[in-house]
Design brief:
The chain is of the alpha/beta class. The protein folds into two domains: 59 residues; 105 residues, Thiolase/Chalcone synthase (Peroxisomal Thiolase, Chain A, domain 1). 34% of the residues lie in helices and 20% in strands. The protein has six helices and six strands, in the order βαβαβαβαααββ. The strands form two sheets. Strands 1-2-3 form a three-stranded parallel β-sheet. Strand 5 and strand 6 form a beta hairpin. The mean pLDDT is 89.
Length: 191
């Protein structure tokens, strides 16, 4: 079976009153190679029943317990960061930057709180770029580069698909504000 060319993802949380109309609209599109994926984030209403009422092979329903995923993400990101700090004899006050995966602002804030790292030492870019999956940490580093100094101690922590998590401790190698631009060209950022 050939994969569809267009996937319409419909996030849902306790909004079943609007769901049937949204799904009808998506499924009525003239694009023949189309699938509609409803991602139910732990709804307690009849979201599942509304989806089941559509007898269309192009409609897929995924249910996740959003609250459980949220708690697990916070616990594991803070746990892996704590392990890294312990292995490297670091305390929260010795960390210059916490660079967490940018899944959502509440997870970022809760992870920082559990680690004892103030928010002014946490890189946050979710408000600018959203959750860009595996690019969130590199985007943080790119965005904050002018503020980084040689020797800055950084803990990077991530949580992702398949309930995987990881972290690493690094020390920054150069002064971001005075670093030469690649190929003599500006990287578009101002110091």
């Amino acid at each position: 079976m050939k994969a569809p060319r267009v996937s319409v993802v419909v996030p849902a949380f306790n909004q079943s009153g609007y769901l049937a109309e949204a799904l009808s609209s998506a499924l009525a599109q003239t694009m023949p190679d189309l699938e509609v994926i409803v991602v139910d984030d732990g709804s307690t209403d009849d979201t599942a029943a509304v989806c089941a009422s559509f007898r269309d092979a192009r409609l897929h329903y995924v249910h996740q317990e959003g609250a459980a995923v949220y708690k697990f993400a916070i616990a594991k990101m803070a746990e892996v960061a704590g392990e890294i700090m312990s292995r490297n004899n670091l305390r929260a006050d010795m960390i210059d930057w916490l660079i967490p995966h940018q899944a959502n602002k509440r997870i970022i804030e809760s992870t920082a709180e559990r680690m004892g790292v103030p928010m002014d030492k946490v890189m946050v870019t979710i408000h600018k770029y959203g959750n860009t999956t595996n690019a969130t940490i590199p985007l943080c580093l790119w965005d904050y580069e002018p503020k980084l100094k040689r020797g800055d101690r950084m803990v990077l922590a991530a949580f992702g698909g398949g309930f995987t998590w990881a972290g690493i401790y690094v020390q920054w190698a150069y002064n971001g504000a005075t670093a030469p631009k690649l190929n003599g060209k500006s990287n578009g950022k101002s110091s």
